[in-house]
Specification:
Largest sheet: 6 strands, antiparallel
Strand content: 5-15%
Radius of gyration: 25 Å
Helix content: 40-55%
Strand order of the largest sheet: 2-3-1-9-8-10
Number of strands: 19
Shape: globular
């Protein structure tokens, strides 16, 4: 893991040493194994380098290839090394010690600006081509690493994080008013609908799956990957699909384990992280290493208010996985001194912007902190598993499809299988739902009312500010019209989904000095999972059927076949803030009296919500949009005051 940075003066002038040193010194807050720079006339490249993989021990970044007159600085781990070695005809004697940045440079020499199409992994890199006097930037398909930049008529500057850019004289930290309006108007967990703008007026970011070429004449932004039109894989049997899934997952997990330091995993009681843990533990054991598990459990004294199908405390499932898999050292973490308020200032410092993930903020910060203190190199997770290996082309949808296609025999068989695997008879409910959907009677007034309440509670913007910024028309143009928002469904391939995740993971892990890695979002896994016929995900009366069938023997049946309950991490977030609620009220009231805060936030809504919750906050209000909105307002107000008033 590295923080990369640099400057290109497009008018041919030499880069100022003051500017170069300013960027380098700004990154001194992050731990680094080495910190190097490269300067050649109008180009300056730097890398604040953290060693993770075995090859990185020998890595020199920035790296200069004198014969080709190419220079590279990279924040990258490349996973398809063997494939690239073969494609690039790299002799076997050179493969073991060839670094990932050198491999990227070889790919660039062969394929030029098309080289990201051939790379699998987590990467953001910048290459200076001295012969053509072009700077080439690329970000991986899922945008797992951040890359920010500023450009004007004279210069181009870039960095993994924003703070070194705001420190440059020609950039500064003026806030982006449109970004702020989006953040406040957008009820989603995502910050904005844009993948290019940032909270700062003069700083942009390179979107996922894009390249950027900078010359003395201008910039060219190009998208190089789009996950569409997957050709369906046709295998002979369901067993072959199961074996193929485990094969591609083993490949992904194996390549994600490359670390010179211990490896950990953020482990829940579900299928996705459990599957990753099972495969990773087995491979690590063969090399004499142990997997460190980090699992969140509710604070002591928490009274479970959640529905029967939710599991705030996943300890029984997690323990079952650990006992079955073996070779995992568990860490059950409750962080009794932390809550959604106590971590705000640290998250604002890490992320360089306001955020919305209130419910999970304290335990995400806590587990990252422990991983850093333990000196881990890689921390695995199964975060994208719901969208790939266990995507929920669920049983009900499968039955609806059979109903619409009049496949009565198969319909009866599948409903019987559901009853057998769940001990519940849902035939009547499923058929009723299918019938309503088929005839178009699918409007649910209760659900519509809930969405309206959700949007109202989480839309924080001052109406006058919204009007001045014309934010509703803008969001409508972006395809996000309030009347069509469904906060329960998001497109896995929507770039804002990727950008949201990478902003958190890149910056937090850079701060704590490890690399977060998710094998379930590996490009090869994505390609495979979206080429599988949908019915494979809903066979034998099972939701997420394929992964349940494929992990027989890898996971205990208690976890593998569980259809009774889902994990609910962070369900105790309100329970944690009850003791400090008076302080929260006082701070929010103070913020409502601030002119700068009143300009942005809907103060009337804040006051009404405070009145609503006066002496009435209870743990079972964790799903209240208004309560979440209050805490999000507090986060935003602190950011604004720190940024604009130097607080």
């Amino acid at each position: 893991m590295s923080a990369i940075y640099g400057i290109f003066l497009r008018n041919g002038e030499a880069v100022s040493q003051d500017a170069a040193m300013s960027m380098r010194e700004s990154l001194g807050r992050y731990r680094a194994d080495t910190s190097r720079t490269f300067t050649k006339g109008s180009v300056f490249l730097g890398c604040h380098f953290q060693m993770i993989t075995p090859e990185s021990i020998h890595e020199i970044l920035p790296y200069y290839h004198s014969e080709a007159d190419l220079s590279i600085t990279a924040d990258a781990i490349i996973d398809n090394r063997e494939e690239l070695f073969d494609r690039l005809l790299i002799h076997r004697s050179r493969r073991a010690e060839m670094t990932d940045s050198q491999l990227i440079l070889k790919a660039f020499e062969k394929w030029g600006n098309q080289c990201p199409n051939f790379l699998v992994g987590d990467f953001a890199f910048v290459i200076w081509n001295g012969k053509s006097r072009e700077l080439f930037c690329a970000r991986d398909q899922r945008g797992t690493r951040t890359l920010y930049y500023h450009e004007d008529a004279k210069s181009f500057a870039f960095c993994t994080v924003m703070r070194p850019l705001t420190g440059l004289k020609n950039i500064g930290n003026s806030l982006n008013e449109l970004w702020l309006a989006e953040f406040l108007a957008f009820p989603f967990i995502f910050s904005t609908a844009s993948t290019q703008t940032t909270v700062y007026k003069n700083i942009m970011q390179l979107p996922p799956a894009h390249t950027l070429t900078i010359t003395e004449k201008g910039l060219q932004l190009q998208k190089y990957w789009s996950p569409t039109n997957y050709k369906k894989l046709q295998l002979k049997s369901s067993k072959e699909y199961e074996e193929a899934l485990i094969s591609v997952l083993r490949q992904a997990v194996s390549s994600h384990l490359r670390s010179i330091r211990p490896v950990g995993i953020r482990l829940s009681g579900g299928l996705d992280s459990g599957t990753v843990a099972g495969l990773a533990s087995w491979e690590l054991k063969n090399t004499g290493k142990t997997l460190h598990g980090f699992s969140y459990v509710p604070i002591e004294g928490f009274q479970d208010w959640t529905p029967n199908h939710c599991m705030p405390d996943e300890t029984p499932m997690i323990s079952a996985t650990i006992n079955h898999v073996g070779n995992i050292l568990p860490n059950y973490c409750s962080f009794p001194k932390e809550n959604a308020i106590s971590v705000i200032d640290e998250w604002l410092d890490i992320l360089e912007q306001p955020y919305k993930f209130v419910e999970n903020s304290f335990w995400l910060k806590g587990t990252d902190e422990i991983a850093g203190q333990m000196g881990l190199g890689v921390v695995l997770n199964g975060g994208m598993g719901n969208m790939t290996i266990s995507q929920d082309s669920d049983f009900q949808s499968h039955v609806i499809k059979l109903f619409k296609q009049l496949h009565w025999k198969e319909l009866v068989t599948q409903i019987a299988a559901w009853k057998r695997t769940t001990n519940r008879s849902l035939a009547k409910g499923v058929i009723s739902t299918a019938y309503r959907r088929v005839i178009g009677n699918h409007q649910n007034k209760d659900w519509g009312s809930y969405i309206k309440e959700l949007i109202n509670g989480l839309t924080l913007i001052n109406p006058e500010y919204a009007k001045r910024m014309n934010i509703w028309d803008y969001l409508n143009e972006q395809g996000y019209h309030p009347g069509s928002w469904d906060l329960g469904n998001s497109d896995f391939f929507d770039p804002i989904f990727f950008s949201h995740q990478s902003t958190i993971f890149t910056k937090s892990s850079l701060h704590h000095s490890f690399w977060p890695r998710d094998p379930t979002s590996d490009l090869r896994v994505i390609d495979f999972c979206y080429s599988i016929p949908e019915e494979q995900y809903a066979l034998d009366g099972l939701n997420r059927s394929l992964i349940r069938r494929a992990t027989a023997g890898i996971l205990p049946d208690k976890v593998r076949l569980n259809q009774q309950g889902n994990g609910y991490q962070g369900a105790d977030w309100v329970h944690r803030i009850i003791p400090v609620w008076d302080q929260i009220e006082d701070e929010l009231i103070q913020h409502t009296q601030s002119e700068i805060v009143r300009e942005y936030l809907d103060v009337g809504k804040i006051k009404n919500s405070l009145y609503e919750f006066k002496n009435k906050v209870q743990a079972d209000m964790a799903e209240s949009p208004s309560l979440k909105g209050l805490v999000r307002s507090l986060i935003f107000a602190r950011f604004i005051q720190k940024t604009t008033e130097g607080g």
